[in-house]
UniProtKB/TrEMBL annotation:
Signal peptide: none annotated. Belongs to the eukaryotic/archaeal PrmC-related family. PROSITE patterns: N6_MTASE (PS00092). This is Methylase of polypeptide chain release factor. Keywords: Methyltransferase, S-adenosyl-L-methionine, Transferase. It comes from Thermoproteus tenax (strain ATCC 35583 / DSM 2078 / JCM 9277 / NBRC 100435 / Kra 1). GO terms for cellular component: eRF1 methyltransferase complex. SUPFAM superfamilies: S-adenosyl-L-methionine-dependent methyltransferases. It comes from the Archaea.
Length: 244
């Protein structure tokens, strides 16, 4: 902070946050993230593979695929997204967001993209169950994602805990200590959106909503927080970022 305090509003040295305070805040955030990781592991271990009802959809969620039914973040995306034209869902998982997009009258088609074959199989089944298979294309590769670009709308509910995954299951909720997953998804969204297109993505106070917005801005996406919802451990925010 020294030498640049006047640019950030710290005009008095005694009001500048001490390095120990900054470290303590970071440590508390990591601790909460570890608690969230443990809670998500327990929840997903307890949930059976079956068909769930969620936001007017029937979703088959097998073990090994992120279950959106109890996720505040997924519900936030579905309830607040403004969909139209050609859309893509990055990291589709069970396909909940892709299906919700496809059900919107203003959406022509949806590319449901994921790197997990199990997730894509579930998304395909769920698109059929919910009667939108004709509008949802299963996109297993980046080439498939690019083939249908550019998109008017791109959505993502990515892993957001600022932790490195310890095992395969953690990949559903751990974004890496430097938020590597968010950085990659932001780059993908910027690449496949048309100029003026909109990227909807979730972030958490554990992620650092401001940090997430900075990542988006570096990729030519102008971010603003559209809505937030509280959980016992954090606040989940939906960021709307328009490609400039």
């Amino acid at each position: 902070m020294s030498g640049r305090g006047h640019k950030r509003g710290w005009s008095r040295p005694d009001l500048r946050p001490a390095a120990s305070d900054i470290k303590a805040a970071a440590d508390r955030r990591v601790l909460r993230a570890e608690v969230a990781r443990a809670a998500l592991r327990i929840l997903h271990a307890a949930l059976p593979a079956r068909v769930y009802r969620f936001k007017g959809m029937a979703l088959y969620v097998p073990r090994g695929v992120f279950n959106p039914v109890f996720a505040v973040s997924t519900a936030l995306v579905i309830s607040r997204i403004e969909a139209r034209g050609r859309a893509a869902d990055l990291g589709t998982g069970s396909g909940a967001i892709a299906i919700a997009l496809a059900k919107s009258p203003g959406v022509e088609s949806v590319c449901a993209y994921d790197v997990s074959p199990l997730a894509l199989a579930a998304a395909k089944i769920n698109a059929e169950i919910n009667g939108v298979a004709h509008k949802v294309a299963i996109c297993p590769t980046r080439e498939a994602l690019l083939a249908s670009a550019p998109y008017d709308v791109v959505a993502a509910n990515p892993p957001y805990l600022p932790l490195d995954p310890r095992g395969e299951e953690d990949r559903s909720w751990c974004a890496g200590r430097r938020l590597e997953v968010l950085r990659e998804i932001a780059a993908q969204a910027a690449r496949v959106l048309r100029p003026g297109g909109v990227f909807y993505v979730t972030a958490s106070t554990l992620t650092g909503v401001g940090q997430a917005a900075e990542i988006l801005a570096r990729h030519g996406l102008a971010p603003r927080v559209k809505a937030c919802a509280a959980t016992p451990l954090d606040r989940i925010c939906l960021i709307e970022a328009r490609k400039t």
